[in-house]
Amino acid sequence: MQPFRLGVVNFLNAYPLWAALQHDSRVILVPDVPSRLALELRAGNLDAALISSVEYLRHPEGFAYHPGLCIAANAESKSIRLFVNNNDSAFREKVAQTQRIYTDVASRSSVAQLRVILHELQRFPELVEVANPAERIPVLGPGEALLSIGDTALRYMHCPSYDLQTAYHTIFKRGFVYALWVGRAAIMHELQPVLDLAYQQWLGDQDTLLSEAVQRFGFDRSFAEEYLARIIGHSLSPERRADLEFFSARLRQL
């Protein structure tokens, strides 16, 4: 049997879902950002991938998602951030003053989440997609903002910014599912036990695998441990499923 080709996201928040797969002969890992992985999956070049939840919601035909695993957050995410030139006012007030928001080409879920928030607040700034968000963060001017995700957002947390999930939770009282394991529907029943085992291995050997994560991504161990244990969730619980359904309904209103 040919190994499964799995698209993975090389971010700290995704690492618990695929760390143990690096040494699994049943899979070949293909790292990329979520938006490109979704394109590769739909093109038939991958069997499954960690992709933005919105990509699945928009193109579910022929695909299925793992029923128990995800990347999600509840009251904050830390790694989905709206950067500004200064954050001297509340989120709603700052959004009202913003004419242009640069969005990260790497992810679609965070952009869709932003659009849902903007729609609720009845604010419609220009959205401009960019490929190198880190370069723009230090030079944002008045009336500008930039949405960045993942490790870039974490590394620039010291810059003026707002946690987008905190804003979303404040407005809707909901958590958010950012990414799902999505694969071809015909093979997901074969793949699911492989993905389950990988996550169980993370849970069973967190000390070793967390040390690998710290070395790989360059974050302080105490931060990485808290971030992965308290901020980011990987279980697609009934509550997170309800959050996904809520987001899907809001998305259809746009």
3D architecture notes:
44% of the residues lie in helices and 25% in strands. With 254 residues, the protein is α/β, with parallel strands linked by helices. The longest helix is centred in the C-terminal third of the chain and has 17 residues.
SSE topology sketch:
Elements: E1 4-8, H1 15-18, E2 27-31, H2 34-42, E3 48-52, H3 53-58, E4 63-73, E5 80-84, H4 91-96, E6 100-104, H5 109-121, E7 126-130, H6 133-136, E8 144-149, H7 150-155, E9 161-163, H8 164-172, E10 176-184, H9 188-204, H10 206-217, H11 221-231, E11 232-235, H12 238-252
Parallel strand pairs: 1-2, 1-3, 6-7, 6-8
Antiparallel strand pairs: 3-10, 4-10, 4-11, 5-8, 5-9
Helix pairs in contact: 5-8
Describe the structure concisely for a colleague:
44% of the residues lie in helices and 25% in strands.
Low-pLDDT runs of 5+ residues are none
The tally of strands reads 11
Biggest sheet, spatial arrangement of strands: 2-1-3-10-4-11
* Shape field: globular
SSE string, helices as H and strands as E: EHEHEHEEHEHEHEHEHEHHHEH
Distance between the termini: 44 Å
> At CATH's second level, what is the architecture of the largest domain?
3-Layer(aba) Sandwich
- At the first level of CATH, the class of the largest domain is Alpha Beta
Count of alpha and pi helical runs = 12
Query: How many discrete structural domains?
Result: 2
What's the rounded overall pLDDT mean? 96
CATH H-level superfamily of the largest domain = Periplasmic binding protein-like II
Q: Report the major sheet.
A: 6 strands, mixed
Calculate Rg over CA atoms.
Answer: 18 Å
Estimate what percentage of residues fall within beta strands: 15-25%
Query: Helix content range of the residues, please?
Result: 40-55%
- CATH topology name of the largest domain, in short, is D-Maltodextrin-Binding Protein, domain 2
SS-based class:
alpha/beta
